[in-house]
Amino acid sequence: MEKDIFNLDLNSPTTKKLTAIILSSFLVTFIIARLFVYLVINQYTPNLFLMIKGVHVHHFTYGFFILAAVGLYLILKHPPITSKKFRSLACFYGIGLGLAVDEFGMWIRLEDDYWTRQSFDAVIIITLLLLNIAYFKQLISWLKEIFSFSKNND
Question: Where are the domains of the chain?
Answer without folding.
Answer: 12-153
